[in-house]
Amino acid sequence: MNSSAQYFHNAAAAITYHAPGYIRVTWQPTAVSVADLQAIYEHILRALRHYGSTQLMSVHGQRPPMPPQVQEWLTTQWVPRAIAEAGYDKCAVVEAEAPLSRLAARSVGTGLTQTLRYNYFSTVQEAAEWLQIK
Question: How far apart are CA 51 and CA 29, in angstroms?
């Protein structure tokens, strides 16, 4: 049985814990400020720590493209902190429908200097299956 628990929700994103052991953030088609995006990622980090999870699924759907300053902040600050504080080690990205949103998300992956296993998927099911591979 696959169960989940909601951790956080606002107009831009919902963060849930899924019993196989990963945190899932489902983004909405809502434009938000840089500060609001950073605050959502801080909630994600708290959820990783709270549940003792090291894995994240990010479902982009119709999410607007991330601003370049958020992309840089993720690669230089948030990901290194998440690795150090929560043992974050694996991220499955269910890609956005819009090409610019896909490109923005991929730029985060290519900008990383830390060891983080990540991959991009077309469906939530594919991403969930990949997260179960140890």
Answer: 27
Minimal CA–CA distance to 108: which of 123, 124, 120, 121? Answer: 120
* Structure-token pair, residue 27: 């983004």
**pLDDT tier at 1 (50, 70, 90 boundaries)?**
very low
Return d(Cα 15, Cα 41) in angstroms, integer.
Answer: 10
pLDDT digits (tens, 9 = 90+) for 41-83: 999 999 999 999 999 999 999 999 999 999 999 999 999 999 9
CATH number, domain 4-131: 3.30.750.24
- Amino acid found at 40: I
For the chain, the structural domain boundaries read 4-131
- The whole-model pTM stands at 0.95
In angstroms, what CA-CA distances link 69 with 1, 13, 38, 98?
Answer: 40, 19, 10, 19
